[in-house]
Design brief:
Helix content is 44%, strand content 27%. With 78 residues, the chain is α+β, with helices and mostly antiparallel strands. The chain is flat.
């Protein structure tokens, strides 16, 4: 998950919620507006919504080749 910079400058920062013993309950995004604590720290590593969309597109395209390689391997094992 990446820090996403929205058009109005707000950041969507990924956060995980865990139990006291460390088990994962869920993942979500928290919005941090300009001027809030840690905004500048998160801003430095943020990407735009467009950059996030492009990364997801590239991953999906890469998944096709990986899936084909897995299916070929699986067929060899049968």
């Amino acid at each position: 998950m990446y820090v996403i910079r929205l058009g109005d400058g707000t950041l969507r920062v990924p956060r995980s919620l865990t139990t006291d013993d460390g088990r994962l309950i869920g993942n979500a995004y928290v919005e941090v507006a300009p001027g809030e604590p840690d905004y500048e720290r998160w801003l430095a590593e943020s990407i735009t919504e467009e950059e996030d969309t492009e990364r997801r597109r590239r991953w999906r395209e890469g998944d096709d080749a990986l899936e084909q390689a897995f299916l070929a391997f699986k067929a060899e094992q049968d």
